[in-house]
Amino acid sequence: MAGNKKIAKNYIFNTSYQLLAIIVPLVTTPYISRALGAEGIGINSYTYSIVSYFVIFSILGTATYGNKQIGILQDDPIGRSRKFRDILTFRIITAGSALVLYIAYVLLFAKNKEIALIQAFYLLATIVDTAWFFQGMEDFRRVAIRNYAIKLLNVAIIFIFIHNPEDLWKYVLMLAGLTFVGNLSIIPYLKKYLVSTKGYKPKPFTDFRVIIQLFIPAMALQMYEMLDKTMIGVITQSAAQNGYYEQSNKIVKMALILVTAINTVLLPKSSKAYAENRIDDMHEYLYKSYRFVWFMGVPLMCGVIGTAKVLVPVFFGDGYEPVIQVLMIMALLFVPIALNSTSSAQFFISTGRQNIYTYCVLAGGAFNVVLNALLIPRFKANGAGIASVAGEIIIMICMLAYVAKHRHYSVGKIFAVSGKYLVAGGIMLGALIFAESRLPLKVWSLAVLIAGGAALYYIILIIEKEYFVTYGIKYAVNFIRNKLGVKNG
Description:
Layout lengths: L1 H58 L2 H11 L4 H32 L4 H6 L2 H7 L3 H6 L3 H22 L6 H18 L22 H29 L2 H37 L3 H38 L6 H8 L3 H16 L4 H26 L1 H26 L4 H6 L2 H18 L6 H21 L3 H18 L5
């Protein structure tokens, strides 16, 4: 029970940490979409997609690798301090090199040079990013609290300084600059965990092969999102189409955090369990993660599809009608992406099978690029959305086919638990579609749809006596009883 409580707390802190990095732009989107317009949003989206390639190469596989290694070395102060210095040195070298190359690209080739140059702050932020260390130490609270302050400042700056399309540069500077400031501000907390390693010379390239193995699938996954935006911009020559895709992507990314954040929490636990040959414990974490994917992924998928026709005009305003269809397509990403995230973090990476993970991701990535080339010319942003969904399904099939062939754990067990969630999600979707067509395009209508859909879904799960709902109710009751001083029994 104590272990479950710690996982639950870390999940909450990690979710808030990652969610705030996306939810603030989402909360301010109704204002920003009207102030900057689809074209301004598209310019930011396209230039960010370019700098992201350089960020990917500056990080390589150090984020996942660092999380895993620090998780294994949690109880070894000297070992984790040395490993931290190894990884940090490696990142300084790669990020510094990427920054120089990016500046050269901006000066020589970039169209929107001013905006593109401001995006360089994301590379500076990469150099001082140490979140992977705190994640490995399972210290999510400290990072989350720090992010609250940074993101509140983010909101204030938007409403004070961003008013029209000419303020696009201020908006980009705010997003990129605060990412850098946020990463920089957490560095003082490292002294709690690091000890002196006097005389130790960092060995940044000792585990270069493993880092590269983790980098390739991470690169391919990022390519889904970034290549979609780049190819939309290059093929359609329309900043507005990138704007439509970007707005859909914001909603999906924000909601996905609620499903996938648990993998960051459990990765160090799974890695440590595997290293200590506690295979049963590792499988327990794995199956709980898969069940959680269905628990959260299904209602998010059905909820977004069922509310899109109200959500888009209410949230983004006039001129964003094409986002409705793109968003409905991309809502299909919730379950496959979350399943793939769980498979990669809780099994392939934690057990050192990242090469298999790499092959699966590359297969999906290649399929995604080909479909982009075929579909974007005709269907534009919709085509990019279809390609992304298809690519993730290919990855899922490859991963689960490997697991089924080698019998590492039960694939059937993963899908066997989905029934309750699919039934509840299907009923919720039907109710939302019925209600959506009868409600006006008002903020209160969207609130009613979201609250009503969520309530219906969880009421059905209560009736079905679903695992997480039952555990959550018991946990809440015990918490209240303890606060009130009421003894059990």
